[in-house]
Prior knowledge:
The protein has one domain. Helix 1 (9-31) crosses helix 2 and helix 5 (106-124) packs antiparallel against helix 6 (126-133). It is mainly α. The chain has a two-stranded antiparallel sheet with strand order 1-4. A two-stranded antiparallel ribbon has the order 2-3. Helices cover 68% and strands 7% of the residues. The chain is built from six helices and four strands.
Amino acid sequence: MRRSRLAYLPFAFPLLALAEIVVFLAVADAIGAGLAVLLLAVSSVAGIALLRREGIRGFRAFQEAVRAGRPPGDEVSNSLIGLFGALLLALPGFVTGVAGVVLLLPPGRFLARRAVERFAQRNLGGAATGDLFGPRRVRVHQSDPVTVVVVDEEQPRPPAGAIEGEIVR
């Protein structure tokens, strides 16, 4: 029986809370309790400010993509990842703050966007993701030329087999 990943969510939140407490105590021990609380407050305020900025930037990028006639999937996924990163930064805690900063920086955002695209491809299918992210270009590599086997004089058939390829962005 296959379980949904959402079934594990009630176990994830207490573990995250425990991790946040342990990390806070370690940071407070290293730099002092007052400075640790101040660092949490500054990161939360920065996260709230970034929530507004990422939301406005994402909405403008979406509008520009629609005006230009491009699929808006890249802009939407990029802004959702930025919003999620800013939300994680706004939550009080060092673990969520670090995860938020990773999602706000370009390498983390790129990796998360690729994961969102793969998730959409698996769950929505090719037609919907083609509308969101645009058509995929496929590069085909052939190890040997395709030969046509003549079974009947009038109907040539290619041999059965897979053609290896890779998706190129």
